[in-house]
Amino acid sequence: MVQKRSLPENFPKKLILDSTVIIQILAKDWFLTDDCVVIVPANIKEELKSFESNLVLTLLESKKNIIFLMPSSFSLSNAVNLAKQAGEYERLSSYDLNVIALAIENPEFTIISDDNAIQNLCNIFNIRVLSSFFKITKRKKYYWKCTVCGAQFSKKLDCCADCGSPLKRYFRKV
């Protein structure tokens, strides 16, 4: 018989799970204790592709301490604005934005994610986040720079507004 490992004792008890963590729950052989409350965005099935991750989701659905929610449109709008400010908007899926929005609505909860864009956004705006495997080491603020004239833009455009040339993405450490 395989022995399940519980989460570390000092681990937060109020969690919001990103899809990157769903399969890792099985890989790390974690089980969520009854005193943990977990929020998962209701549109998670759109993100999960593998049989294994869908199996884990099915197991999670049977637990009483897992809550499937969608954020309010107000919180989702705030999450989109934060993502655009940080230059992460293009890298985030609608599911990722729902994770951020749920954290805005529930500030006492901690996001668990290995997604670099989610971790970076949370670190910039002081939203609680932990990684399960891959933790980012630097906070980054992204910008786009014209390859010809050098003009800089805070959001992604199809081409340079000044000269029409292609843009390349860069970052500054925050």
From TrEMBL:
GO terms for biological process: maturation of SSU-rRNA. The keyword Cell membrane does not apply. One of its GO terms (molecular function) is metal ion binding. Keywords: Hydrolase, Metal-binding, Nuclease. Residues 15-105 form the Ribonuclease PIN domain. It comes from the Archaea. GO terms for cellular component: preribosome, small subunit precursor. InterPro entries: NOB1, PIN-like_dom_sf, Ribonuclease_PIN. PANTHER family: RNA-BINDING PROTEIN NOB1. This is Ribonuclease PIN domain-containing protein. It comes from Candidatus Heimdallarchaeum endolithica.
